[in-house]
Amino acid sequence: MTNKILKIALVGRTNAGKSTLINKIVGEKISIQNKKINTTQVTIMGVKNIKKTQLIFYDTPGSNFLKSLNRQSKNLKMNLWSGIDESDLIVYLIDSKTANVKFLFEQLKKLQEIKKKIIIIFNKIDLISNKKILPLINQLDKNFKIEDFFIISAIKNLGINDFLDHINKFSYPSKWIFKEDEITNKNDSFIIDELLRETILTYLHKEIPYNVIIKTTNFKTLKNHDIKIKQKIIIKESRYKKIIIGRKGEMIKKIREDSQKKISQILNANIHLYLEVINV
Predict the structure, then answer these.
(1) End-to-end distance of the chain based on CA atoms, in angstroms?
(2) CA dist 91 to 16, 88, 185, 242, Å?
């Protein structure tokens, strides 16, 4: 049997659940999950192999910023459209609980200009009745050319397999881009940097900017197979340093312990994590 591939752009508003969905699909945490706007700042690719088909998902930044003209938003916009351009299929993810008709119409009008197949997923269906979603599905179906609609709960892993089975039919013969055991285009260093950034935003999402920079400066496997990791938390204003460190170092201790635990689970090893906060 010939190998096949399909490239899918996951698009949608911040907090629609794109990162949660892609993590569930590939079976590991590769994309940051946080309620702060646009925590996914680059396009992360997740890979799911089903028999002879390789599905490649592009986890794009949230589309909230499309009308903004600031520099940060321009960079995010480039990453979003890059993921869409590379894809064969667009999957638009909607938070069922906070769906806004006017916003959806604006977004879908832009996406339809690209002339690619679009599938709409209503996520977080565990938080709302199906009856409330059906009128919106009918409205979207009448006004746009949508291939299909799916109702899922990414966090509870409901409806995902049906969605994967369905999109498999759009795959086409091609050599696989990724090896059989690869699940993302990002290396371990990128993923652990993202895990630390996610932990910081979890504890301090109201106090510090989402574009805090994390840099792994040392990654060493010890003789006993433990892993020693040194990371720098780089911020642009000195006032944020005090917030991250916290009173008597309590906050940085929480961040280190939580992040160390997450990294240990991902790498399946004992982790010795050392953090340094610097401002530039």
Answers:
(1) 55
(2) 12, 10, 20, 41
| Spatial separation of the C-alpha atoms in residues 210 and 41, rounded to whole Å | 9
Contacts of 229 (CB under 8 A, 6+ apart): 192, 216, 218, 219, 220, 263, 271, 272, 273, 274
**Residue 8 neighbours by CB distance under 10 Å:** 25
What torsion, rounded to 10 degrees, do the Cα atoms 169, 101, 130, 56 define? 30
- Give the other-Cβ count within 10 Å of 162's Cβ: 11
Is residue 97 a contact partner of residue 15, using CB atoms and an 8 Å limit?
no
Distance (Å) of CA 197 to CA 100, 159, 232:
29, 30, 11
Q: How far is CA 147 from the centre of its chain?
A: 23
Distance CA 75, CA 258 (A): 30
Q: What is the pTM of this model?
A: 0.76
| Whole-number Å distance between alpha carbons of 138 and 108 | 15
Per-residue pLDDT of the chain (280 residues; tens, 9 = 90+): 699 999 999 988 878 888 889 999 998 877 766 544 444 456 788 999 999 999 999 887 755 434 443 434 445 445 556 678 889 999 999 999 988 889 899 889 988 888 899 999 999 998 888 888 999 999 999 999 999 999 999 999 999 999 999 999 999 999 999 999 888 888 888 888 888 988 988 888 777 766 688 999 999 999 999 999 999 999 888 888 999 999 999 999 999 999 999 899 888 899 999 999 998 8
CA–CA gap between residue 124 and residue 113 (Å, rounded): 28
